[in-house]
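STRUCTURE:
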């Protein structure tokens, strides 16, 4: 080998991988949140004297012949003087005597590894390690000091590194094979689609230039492979360490898996993993780590489970569950531990952006070397708002309180929280909005969580309702930590119940805070119109790249018809049912095939369906039901088969399971009807968004209502043309589509025909399908 390969690992990761043992406890475990920890660390550091240096970076590189191992980290603080002391600070909510010995030993080991690196660098014969525990509630500290000679630290390091080296050699061999395959990798298909090459080139350049890129690329251009291929080629140049493919839909993950399989057939060697939500893979319901056989002794068995999975290139849910059962380890935690050595992680947005569940092992530090590919990025705006929003209500508190034994500390704290809600109920009725967080509620929530954590540590029985409220309370506390002028507190009182919500109006700054930790991020979707809106809310900056690609398909393959004489506003829906029904029937009569009709709500859907079914009883119809599970959704889509011998019309809702993320190629779908402009339902939250952006000089109505609504319209219309041979029709029904503010958001490739009713539509359809048949006799 001509040049030495360097493997990098953080000191904390090295200690945890080699020395952690025993049970998997609840992830919080009595220790503070990231923000509280940062504040606590700074408070302790500021209290030290002049001979103290905070945040000291250490690094050690050791040559093992065929590779080098680089260990790095940052010491919380170093006391200088005759006797050097390395300080490791940990923040907690637990009473100091209840901190598990297992945790203390691991913290001390981390301090010892820092001490070893610092002593080598400064040629010290001995030094001390100081563990400082800081209680974020009462600001008390507990300090323990341990003296070590260099001989003792050398022996400690040798023990740690011996355990790790066997694993490191496996990782090294894999990385060498991976890097060789990446350098030789070619595009897995005979040629790029129209626009796809330009897309791929911009993705590659953005990753190399370490910037953010926003791409609007139409359906059918091949965005998934168009993003993954150049991103992996950039990895061959060492542009980053790990790639995250983020998606909001299962379909997005499946497309990513398909793209990877295509590249693997061309010789790609890559370790990838698909992270499944904990609620879906947990072997027990409810999930209780204190009693679960898969968490008790987890760290004693985890390395064997990881070794078993390392032989596989792609880790999916089935494979992870299989190995988790074999080695009796938690499948969700196993997937997270495997993600540390996988090259590509396919997961939901929340694993990167949600402050409650984001992967701290990858995004907990100020900087990382991980690149993000954000699929269907238009979904992230509202998803991000949800991530930074938290709600509590009085009814849940009372239900949980009944479970707790009388006299319990958690029960007492819950009673105090309930009294706060009672006070709110006495003060008001209806809805109220405040610009400040509910400061008097937060101390009670802190005390409740601390009491629960004490019970968890002592093995006190807990049920699903208590656990759910505990996590809701923790989320509420975390959300309050981000509170600024981009948040509002909403109080709702209805009869005996009280709800309090910390609501996020603008997630852009919080998304930007996460994006700053990553060298590059690519956001792509078929609908990022208008660019300014999405770049503004998704953390774009002046250096961000913007790329808009036109449709690769002939314009004449899609017929767009706008029925702008029908009013579908809420007050006029009852009188418009017949007109909408007639237009649906006319579109479906234009040519035999499958059609989907999209409505702004279930109520409107059901009202029009009853009229349609009564007027056209012989038409084969399907109706999307409320709260369909995965099997029911799959069954609905299975009816849209190209082998259908008669026309079939499906009734669905915009923004739902069938509004985006479905791929009905060819004759599986030849037409869609979109009823309404897709505006979100009028509500207090949307009005607050409108007011917030209007106050900052933006078009508040567009930000709160129009742009999200038109995104739904464009997504549903995009279900029709999925491939270069597809032909189909879209009918937009609403008088507002004639307004300039809506027409300017139409895709450039649309050639809309405005119609005044069913007769005109029928004429236009005869021309469209006739021309289509004439120009494409093989269709």
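SEQUENCE:
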């Amino acid at each position: 080998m001509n040049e030495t390969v360097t493997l990098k690992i953080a000191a904390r990761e090295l200690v945890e991988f080699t020395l952690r043992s025993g049970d998997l406890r609840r992830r919080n475990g009595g220790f503070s949140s990231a923000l509280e920890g940062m504040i606590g660390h700074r408070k302790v550091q500021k209290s030290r004297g002049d001979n103290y240096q905070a945040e000291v970076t250490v690094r050690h590189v050791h040559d093992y012949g065929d590779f080098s191992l680089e260990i790095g980290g940052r010491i919380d603080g170093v006391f200088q003087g005759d006797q050097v002391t390395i300080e490791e600070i940990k923040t907690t909510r637990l009473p100091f005597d209840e901190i598990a010995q297992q945790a203390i030993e691991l913290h001390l080991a981390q301090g010892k590894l820092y001490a070893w690196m610092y002593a080598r660098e400064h040629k010290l014969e001995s030094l001390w390690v100081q563990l400082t525990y800081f209680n974020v509630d009462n600001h008390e500290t507990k300090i323990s000091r341990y003296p070590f000679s260099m001989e003792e630290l050398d022996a400690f390091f040798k023990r740690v590194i011996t355990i790790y080296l066997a694993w490191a050699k496996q990782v090294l061999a894999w990385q060498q094979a991976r890097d060789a395959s990446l350098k030789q990798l070619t595009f897995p298909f005979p040629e790029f689609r129209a626009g796809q090459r330009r897309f791929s080139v911009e993705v590659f350049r953005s990753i190399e230039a370490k910037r953010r890129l926003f791409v609007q690329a139409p359906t059918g251009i091949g965005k998934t492979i168009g993003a993954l291929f150049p991103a992996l080629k950039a990895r061959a140049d060492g542009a980053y360490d790990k790639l995250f493919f983020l998606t909001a839909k299962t379909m997005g993950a499946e497309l990513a898996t398909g793209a990877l399989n295509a590249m693997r057939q061309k010789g790609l060697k890559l370790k990838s993993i698909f992270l499944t939500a904990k609620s879906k893979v947990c072997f027990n319901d409810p999930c209780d780590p204190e009693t679960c056989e898969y968490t008790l002794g987890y760290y004693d068995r985890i390395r064997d489970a990881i070794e078993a999975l390392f032989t596989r290139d792609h880790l999916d849910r089935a494979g992870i569950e299989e190995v988790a059962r074999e080695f009796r380890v938690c499948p969700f935690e196993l997937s997270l531990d495997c993600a540390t050595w996988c090259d590509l992680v396919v997961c939901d947005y929340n694993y990167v952006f949600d402050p409650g569940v984001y992967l701290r092992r990858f995004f907990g530090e100020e900087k990382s070397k991980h690149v993000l590919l954000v699929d269907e990025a238009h979904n992230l705006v509202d998803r991000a708002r949800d991530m930074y929003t938290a709600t509590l209500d009085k009814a849940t508190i009372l239900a949980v309180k009944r479970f707790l034994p009388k006299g319990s500390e958690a029960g007492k704290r819950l009673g105090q929280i309930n009294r706060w809600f009672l006070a709110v109920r006495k003060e008001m009725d209806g809805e109220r909005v405040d610009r400040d967080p509910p400061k008097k509620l937060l101390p009670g929530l802190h005390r409740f969580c601390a009491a629960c954590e004490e019970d968890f540590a002592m093995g006190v029985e807990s049920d699903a309702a208590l656990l759910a409220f505990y996590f809701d309370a923790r989320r509420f506390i975390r959300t309050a930590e981000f509170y600024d002028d981009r948040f509002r507190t909403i109080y709702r009182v209805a009869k005996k119940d009280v709800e309090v919500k910390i609501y996020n109006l603008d997630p852009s700054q919080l998304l930007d805070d996460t994006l700053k930790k990553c060298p590059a991020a690519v956001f792509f979707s078929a609908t990022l119109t208008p660019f300014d809106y999405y770049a503004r809310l998704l953390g774009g900056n002046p250096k961000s790249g913007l790329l808009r690609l036109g449709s690769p398909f002939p314009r004449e393959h899609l017929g767009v018809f706008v029925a702008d004489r029908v009013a579908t506003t809420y007050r006029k829906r009852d009188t418009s049912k017949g007109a909408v029904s007639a237009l649906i029937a006319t579109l479906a009569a234009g040519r035999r095939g499958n059609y989907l009709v999209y409505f702004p709500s279930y109520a409107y859907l059901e009202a029009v369906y009853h009229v349609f079914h009564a007027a056209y009883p012989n038409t084969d119809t399907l109706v999307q039901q409320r709260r369909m599970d995965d099997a029911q959704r799959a069954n609905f889509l299975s009816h849209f088969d190209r082998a259908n011998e008669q026309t079939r019309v499906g009734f669905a809702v915009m923004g739902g399971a069938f509004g985006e993320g479905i791929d009905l190629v060819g004759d599986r779908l030849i037409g869609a009807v979109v009823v309404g402009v897709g505006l979100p339902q009028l509500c207090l939250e949307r009005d607050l968004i409108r007011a917030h952006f209007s106050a900052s000089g933006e078009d508040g109505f567009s930000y709160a209502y129009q742009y999200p609504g038109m995104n739904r319209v464009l997504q549903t219309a995009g279900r029709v043309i999925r491939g270069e041979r597809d032909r189909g029709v879209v009918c937009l029904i609403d008088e507002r589509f004639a307004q300039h503010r809506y027409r300017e958001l139409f895709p450039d490739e649309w050639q809309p025909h405005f119609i005044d009713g069913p007769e005109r539509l029928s004429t236009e359809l005869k021309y469209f399908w006739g021309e289509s048949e004439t120009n494409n006799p093989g269709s």
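REMARK: The chain has a mean pLDDT of 90.
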